[in-house]
Amino acid sequence: MDKLQALQMFVETVDAKGCSAAARRLELATSSITRTIDGLEAELGAVLLNRSTRQVTVSEAGAAYYQRARKILEAVAEADAMIADRGDTPVGQLRVSLPVAFGRCCIAPFFGQLLAMYPLVTLHRN
Q: Looking at the whole model, is its pTM more than 0.90?
């Protein structure tokens, strides 16, 4: 079982107040949601959701698990966003190889501006 996916399904089921609504939100089959939550409950040895033909309610254990699961999913989303944001800013070492005369007259004047714009970039010198 993909634990992260199971947590997402569980949290969405609690938020949507039912497996059918969660399945619609996640664009999955209701049976997939139900089977995954059943597997999660079996793995944990605890009832997370009280199900009847009319409604789904969260058990006491489920409420505690929900709070932790929500924090985990938020932390993963935050980590993903942090890495995604890193891709916009150049980071690392810049190594340029070119003839000395050309470098001095045509390229070197722009290094100061480049390094000021991107402070996480360092210039490698031989």
A: no
